[in-house]
Structure formats: C-alpha cells, structure tokens
Amino acid sequence: MTLLDLGRIHLFCTSLGPDDAPALLLVHGWGGDGREWSPHAEALADRFRVLVPDLRGHGRSEVPDEGNTPAEMAEDLAALIDSLGVGQVVAVGHSMGVQVVNLLAIGHPRTVRSVIALDPAHGAHEAEVATIPARLAAYREHGGRAAAAFVAGAFSAQAPPGLRTAHLRTVLGTPDHVIAQAYAGMYTDPGAVGARPHSEAHLRHRTQPALTVWTSEQAAEWERGTLRVPGSRVEHWPDTGHYLHEERTERTIRLIRDWASGETPG
Known about the structure:
Low-confidence stretches: none
Number of helices: 11
Helix content: 40-55%
Largest sheet: 8 strands, mixed
Oligomer: single chain
Distance between the termini: 27 Å
Number of strands: 8
Strand content: 15-25%
C-alpha cells in the first residue's frame, strides 16, 4: 500500500506481514511520520499484519488547509481500517498518536481491541497547562522552527546517534499550519483532551484494556488512578527520553509483541 484514497483524505500507509494475521496499527506523534516505526514493523511482521500510516498533514499523506487535529486523524484511521477490512486492531500510539488511538477506540469501539499508549500527550498538569498559550502562539508564528526546540530537548543521553537529527529534520519538514493546528487540537480546541481534568473524563469512556508507558514517574502514578478496565496497566520507564519507542526499540518490540499476543478479540 502507498497513498490510499479514503474519500475524506488521501492517507499514506504501509502494510507488512500476512494479510490474515491479527492487525497492529502503529501511530506516530506530532511532527513525525511512520518511518520511526520501521524497525518495529519489520520485527513484528512475522506474527502480525502491521499497518503504519502517516497521519494527515504529516509525512507523505495529504495536507489539508484545515482540520489537522487528533479528532480528524482518528476518523481518518477509522476509515482506513474499514477500507482495508482488517477487523479489530491493537492500536499503538506515541505522544499525540496516543490521543489519536484513544479517540479511535472511544469513537469506534468495535474497531479497536486494545490500546498501547507510549508517553502520551495527555494528562498535562497545571504547571504545564500554564505554558500552553505561549507555546501555541509560538507554533502559530514559527511552526516547525518553534516545534524543533521541543523536539531537540526530548531525548535522553542514551538516545542512539542520529535520532535527534532525524526527528529535527522531520518536524522542520512538517507544514507550519499543521504543527499549530495539531497542537491546538491536543490542548486548546473545544473538546481537546490534553489537560489533566479533560484527560481523566476522556479516559473514562475508553472500554478497551490499555497498556500505558510513561517516562515520568509522577505521570505514571496519576494514570494508574484513572484505570477502570480490567487488564489495563501502567509502566514507568526511567532514564528514557520522550521518543522511548526509538530509544528502547527492542524493549518496545517485546512489549508490543507480548501484549498483542496475549489479547483475545473483544
């Protein structure tokens, strides 16, 4: 697969693994694209059908003038899954991609078997929320150049060589209006779920089991208090940067494989 016409959007997506295998959906975050999942997709394709889309406005997918938000991205993925006829997916998201897969799970519960959430872009505490208006103003004025400052500081000392530069190139190549609209969609638009009170209310509507991994111990403890669905759990990975799935690629692959292999259709 390459660029797929879903009616509502042209979405770039690749698929590895047998067509009749259980489906995994790997969803990148803000200012990224599906290339960051390449080693995971190759490793997991022995057992799963692995779908790796570029979200709208990102990578090789269509770039609309408006609507580059997690809510619209989730609807795009619902259309993608329906178009491909893959049945239920285990939906894996990183950062903004977690908002996207949670919105997909809540809005289209028959589409998602379970969720894996990696360092989510939700649960922003009061001090973080206070910084959001200034950040959004910077993104609206400078787009990817302002977002690059966040990306540059998002890695640990153990990050593989070249990883920071790869992400800086990707975010700088993401259209400026997409950077701003996606950030507003996460935190300030009506219905945005990024701030902690809104996140808590939002997560109560998710009916699927979820495995969440945080690089912040405080955030992990907060999210443990939100769990309502049996089988859900939260892990904390210390000494790891925000792009944990790439800093700890093999550990992430094992995590996804073990979780998805233990699932049964809901």
